[in-house]
């Protein structure tokens, strides 16, 4: 277990499955090594891109072990603990800590129509039970729960283990306010590939995104360009990503992303039901987008 810095590019990994649908830990480890070679700051296993709700508890543990072992302390590892039941969340978080992960990522409770009181109580209880830094995941479109800026800052103040947020709501006003008002050391990480540049420009410290499964070197170059003050290059790189973003999110993630990985020779197997094969039109958009990014697709 190392130190979570909350700065730079973190790749939200797909979870690799074999042709028969079983967990493919070898391919998962290979994807981590690809990311290491590209220079990312870290990876996020079992986030929204990683089909975490489709895994059995033993598969969750095996996936965590494979990612942490492949990272081998060379990059940071964040583990998504996105189950619905608090006991399952805590079990996954404790396993992540024992395996050597650097942080865990949590959603607010979903489906149960939790109030702010319930959300704060739940997160506080998980924080007390899991001895790791916590990354809060704000993704209203997925979770069905949106966290406003004032409430996020209240959570950060009351639960010191919350050291970062993956902000995937698409609201740049909220991102700007969070970056402006957050305490020193707190990290605002963009969760949407389309908004990396504006987020970094207003004070965000990095991004935790799925597009870097395909183009991690481009993502790292984009962050480096902003840090160097080269906004012309940063703008060019951000705009180059946009066709890929549109294609990947044309259908539910990660089905198009897994198909794109297969197209470039880094297949991660099928998605598990209820997701399945993508539409022909999506595949065509992926081919066009990948053709425009060819220099960035190699390791």
Enter the CATH topology name.
TIM Barrel
List segments where confidence is low: pLDDT < 50 over at least 5 consecutive residues: none
Secondary structure class reads: alpha/beta
Portion of residues within helices: 40-55%
CATH architecture identity: Alpha-Beta Barrel
- Quick one: overall form? globular
Q: Quaternary status of these chains?
A: single chain
Radius of gyration: 18 Å
General description of the model:
- By secondary structure, the chain is of the alpha/beta class.
- The chain has one domain (8-230): Alpha-Beta Barrel (TIM Barrel).
- It has twelve helices and eight strands.
- It has helices at residues 25-38, 57-71, 86-99, 116-129, 140-143, 149-158, 172-181, 196-201, 216-227, 231-248, 255-263, 280-291; strands at residues 8-12, 42-45, 76-80, 103-106, 134-138, 162-167, 187-190, 206-209.
- Strands 1-2-3-4-5-6-7-8 form an eight-stranded parallel barrel, surrounded by five helices.
- Helix 1 links the parallel strand 1 and strand 2 (42-45).
- Helix 1 (25-38) runs parallel beside helix 2 and helix 2 packs parallel to helix 3.
- The longest helix is centred in the last third of the chain and has 18 residues, at 231-248.
